[in-house]
Design a protein that fits this description.
Layout (H helix, E strand, L loop, with lengths): L2 H9 L6 E5 L3 H16 L8 E5 L5 H8 L9 E6 L6 H12 L5 E7 L7 H9 L2 E3 L8 H12 L2 E2 L1 H11 L3 H15 L4 E2 L1 H7 L3 H14 L3 H13 L4 H23 L4 H8 L6 H10 L2 H20 L4 H12 L5
Parallel strand pairs: 1-4, 1-5, 2-3, 3-4, 6-7
C-alpha cells in the first residue's frame, strides 16, 4: 500500500492494530501519523492514551507494555515508535513477536526511513498488511500533487502557476506544502493563484539554476554549465533529476522555437511551449541560441546520459559532467 491510500483511510476514521510506515518522504509520514492518531483516539483525551518513543534505546518490553495497556475513554491507544530501525536486533525480535498477535485496542505505528526488505520485521509487516511505503514522488507526478493539495485547501492554481511552482520547488513536498499555504494567505479567499503570486511568494533558486545551465549550454560555456550543475548538486539534487529538468527545459525551448517560427509573439509562444509567461523573454533568447541541429544533438546526448546514469558504474556526478562537456563542445 502506498501511504497516500493509508492517509485517506485514516482520515475516514479507519486504523489497524499495527502500521509500519517506511520511506524518506517526511510529509507523508507525518500526515499518516497524525491521521492514524486522530482515528485511534476518536476525540478521546490525549496524554492518557498516546505515547511516543524513539527506536534508539527503546526496548521491546517497553513498547509491548504500552501497546497492551487498556485505553481510557477512547477508542484505542496510540503508540508511536520513531526510527524503529535503530532498535537493537535483540529488541526487534520481541517486537516481531507482538506483531504476530497485536492488541486490538491499540494502534501501534512504527516509522523508519529505510528497512531491509529481507528482514523479519519487513517480511511479517508485508505479510500481515501492516506495511505502507512513503517514497518520494517522481517529477512527473508533482503537478498532480500540487493540484490535489490546492483542491484540498479549496483554492485554485492556474496551469502556469502550477508549472512555476514545480520548476521552483521540484519534488520537495514540504516546500510545496508551505508555499501553497503562504500563497493561499497571499491571494485571500476565492482568489486564483497565478504566476505573479508565485513570483511574489516563492523563491526561484532551483529554476534559475536550471536556466543558467541551459543558457550556458546555449552559448557553449562549459565553465558556467559546470558551475550551475555544481550549485544544484550542492542543493542535493540527484544527477538524474538534474538531467530530467534540463531535458524538460530544452523540450520547451524546442516548442518555443517552433511557435516563434509560426509568427507568434514571445508571450503567445511561451504559453504554447508550456512555459510560464514570466519566462517568455528568456525562452525567446534560448530559442535563438539553439538551432534545430543543436537541439537534435542535445536530445541525443541527454538520452545516452539517461541510460548511463541508470546503468553505469561510473559515479553519477562524473557522468553528468561528461554530458555537459559534450553539450558545450564547439559545433562541427
Amino acid at each position: 500500500m502506498h501511504i497516500t491510500e493509508l492517509i485517506r483511510s485514516a482520515k475516514a476514521g479507519k486504523f489497524g492494530a499495527v502500521h509500519v510506515l517506511v520511506g524518506e518522504e517526511r510529509l507523508f509520514i507525518d500526515r499518516a501519523t497524525r491521521a492514524l492518531k486522530d482515528a485511534a483516539l476518536g476525540g478521546g483525551p490525549t496524554g492518557f492514551n498516546d505515547e511516543a518513543l524513539d527506536g534508539k534505546g527503546a526496548t521491546s518490553r517497553r513498547v509491548v507494555e504500552a501497546a497492551n495497556t487498556i485505553p481510557m475513554m477512547a477508542r484505542a491507544r496510540f503508540i508511536l515508535v520513531r526510527h524503529v530501525d535503530d532498535m537493537a536486533a535483540a529488541e526487534l525480535e520481541g517486537l516481531i513477536a507482538y506483531l504476530n498477535a497485536p492488541c486490538d485496542t491499540t494502534c501501534l505505528v512504527l516509522t523508519a526511513d529505510k528497512i531491509d526488505g529481507r528482514s523479519k520485521l519487513a517480511t511479517i509487516a508485508k505479510k500481515k498488511g501492516y506495511w505502507a511505503e512513503a517514497g518520494s514522488l517522481k517529477p512527473a507526478d508533482i503537478r498532480g500533487f500540487i493540484g490535489d493539495e490546492a483542491k484540498a485547501r479549496g483554492i485554485k492554481v492556474d496551469g502556469n502557476a502550477t508549472a512555476a511552482l514545480a520548476d521552483a520547488l521540484g519534488t520537495d513536498l514540504a516546500a510545496i506544502d508551505d508555499a501553497l499555504e503562504r500563497l493561499s494567505l497571499y491571494v485571500g479567499d476565492k482568489a486564483s493563484i497565478d504566476v505573479a503570486a508565485v513570483e511574489a511568494c516563492v523563491t526561484r533558486i532551483r529554476v534559475d539554476s536550471i536556466w543558467s545551465l541551459v543558457d550556458a549550454v546555449g552559448v557553449r560555456d562549459a565553465r558556467k554549465a559546470l558551475g550551475a550543475a555544481s550549485s544544484l548538486l550542492a542543493d542535493r539534487e540527484p544527477p538524474l533529476r538534474i538531467l530530467a529538468m534540463v531535458a524538460r527545459q530544452l523540450r520547451m525551448v524546442a516548442r518555443m522555437r517552433h511557435a516563434l517560427q509560426t509568427g507568434m509573439s514571445p508571450e503567445e509562444a511561451a504559453r504554447e511551449a508550456g512555459a510560464p509567461p514570466f519566462k517568455a523573454r528568456d525562452m525567446a533568447t534560448a530559442a535563438k541560441r539553439f538551432s534545430n541541429p543543436d537541439l537534435a544533438n542535445a536530445f541525443s546526448i541527454l538520452a545516452e546520459t539517461d541510460l548511463a546514469l541508470k546503468g553505469s558504474r561510473v559515479p553519477p556526478e562524473t557522468v553528468l559532467e561528461g554530458a555537459l562537456l559534450r553539450l558545450c563542445a564547439p559545433a562541427r
